[in-house]
Amino acid sequence: MKFAGFIFCLLVICANSVLMKDDQDFKILDEMENALSSKNSKTVIDTTLSFEDIDKMIYEQLTKEKTDKQEESSKAEGLKMVQQILNDELPQKNSQQDVQAVKEKRKADDIEYIAKLFKEVFDSQKKEDGQAVEKKEYGQAVEKQEDGVETVGKKEKEDEAAVEEPVCEDELSTQDCYDLAYNGSCTDPKTSKQTLKVCKRSCRVCCADNEKSQTCKLLKTLRNPMSICQMANTHERLRITCTKTCQYCAKAMTEVPCIRSKYGCCWDGSIAQFHIGTMEDGCPACRDYGGEKFCKSFQPDCKERYTLKGEQIRALCPMTCQRCGVFKKCADNPRLQDTCGLLRNDGACQSMFNAMKYNCPKTCNICHKATIDCKDTRFGCCENGKTIAKDPSNSSCPECHDDITSPVAKHCKRLVAHRVCKTHSAFMRKYCGGSCKFCTK
Fold first, then answer.
1. What region, left, alpha or beta, does residue 395 occupy, with left being phi > 0 and alpha being psi -120 to 50 degrees?
2. Where is the ShKT domain positioned along the sequence (predicted)?
3. Quick check: 288 pLDDT over 70?
4. Of 102, 232, 273, 302, which one has the greatest count of Cβ atoms within 10 A?
């Protein structure tokens, strides 16, 4: 009985010790889980860095790597320098025989260097003598060639004189054409076609002086005709009569390259790089490059539309000349004022909507219009009902047919029979446009 009681007590003690050990194990596990969870949460927090912090870390790492590299390079150079010094000093510590050997080697090096120097001088002199001979022969050849060129040049001048230059004259009187141009007849859709025919010079379709004017011929004989052209009491008259000599010609009324570019024009007429119409598009900053004092003194010249001086001042002082806000208000690009009307007449407001939106919004009356419907364009819509047609024959429109490169194409007719064209129109328009007859809608 006592033995049974002893065994029972022993089992109880063992069970308690096991339970205590389990409790300790569970406690340790709990602590480990808490530590891991806190570590994980910390890791999550650490990973949610902003791009600025990441960039900063990268920059610091690069700086550290660069510094380490420089230090390693510096250490290597230092070791190399120390080694060189030791090598130079080594003969002093060695025997007299080693010192003599070093002297003999240096003497041999000196002799080799002098021989090399003499050879370079000799080769240089020989080269100069050869160049002198070649120069003489070249001069003789050039003289012969110039004789031939003069003969060819005379012939070319005679041929050019034989070719008549296109006539750039107003059929009406100069004053009448000037009045028509001043009143906007050159760019008005109702009158431009006829006016451009009879007033080519005044409408600046071409650039030329009035051939009948003796004043223009006299101006050409001056070394600096602009000194007369820009006088206050001659400016207005010569602007009409001697347009070319006085450099009053506007730029040719054709599309500038930036209009044809992917992202259109910047405020100064340069090509935008990334997007149309914002200052974040790779366009230059709009500021006065000439300085405040300079720009204020020449501010009246900002309005000179047809003079070289006016163009230069507008380029140097865009802020003073109020050229920076072209895309912030409803206004045409100042450099394209003479072009916008012609482009509008050619249908560019519709066919080149994005470019005209940011270059000629006022002329096209599209200041507050974000997109354009193909129905409102000159030639209407293509057969798909979305693409803008660029010509009456629709030759520029994409062909409408099933996508034969897709495995769906062979099932198009079956899908049409099950009316999938209506239930999944986007999918069918992409792969079975011809079978669904989307082109005619």
1. alpha
2. 168-206, 330-367
3. yes
4. 302
The rounded distance, in Å, linking the Cα atoms of 339 and 305 is: 13
What span, in angstroms and rounded, lies between the C-alpha atoms of 321 and 74?
A: 56
Q: Tell me if 277 sits within 8 A of 337, measured CB to CB.
A: no
Position of tokens 């050997």?
Answer: 101
- Residues 6 or more apart in contact with residue 412 via CB below 8 angstroms: 402, 428, 431, 432, 434, 435, 436
Residues 367 and 280 in one domain: yes
- The answer to whether the CB of 266 falls within 8 A of the CB of 358 is no
The neighbour count for residue 364, using CB atoms within 10 Å, is: 21
Report DSSP letters for 163-189, one per residue: SPPPP--BSS-HHHHHHHHHTTTTT-T
Whether residues 199 and 304 fall in one domain: no
Cα distances (angstroms) measured from residue 439 to each of 354, 377, 387:
25, 18, 11
Task: Name which of 381, 379, 326 is nearest 348 in CA terms.
Answer: 379
In this structure, are residues 227 and 236 in contact, taking their beta carbons and an 8 Å threshold?
A: no
Residue 256 — φ and ψ, nearest 5°?
A: -75, 160
198 with 237, same domain: the answer is: yes
**pLDDT digits 0-9 by tens, 165-197:** 557 778 887 778 877 876 767 766 677 778 888
Domain count, the chain: 2
227 located within any domain: yes
User: Residues of the chain with pLDDT > 70: what percent?
Assistant: 43
Give per-residue pLDDT as tens, 414-423.
Answer: 888 888 888 8
Q: Tokens 């230090």 correspond to what residue?
A: 71
The backbone torsions φ and ψ at residue 388, rounded to the nearest 5 degrees and listed phi first, read -80, 125
* 51-93 vs 96-162: helix crossing angle, rounded to 10: 130
51: amino acid identity, one letter: F
CB 412 within 8 A of CB 403: no
Residues 6 or more apart from 322 whose CB is under 8 A from it? 302
Bridge partner residues of 199 (DSSP):
170
Q: Rounded to the nearest 5 degrees, what angle is found at the Cα of 263, between the Cα atoms of 261 and 265?
A: 75
Candidates 268, 234, 265; CA nearest to 248 is 234
CA–CA distance, 216 with 246 (Å, rounded to integer): 9
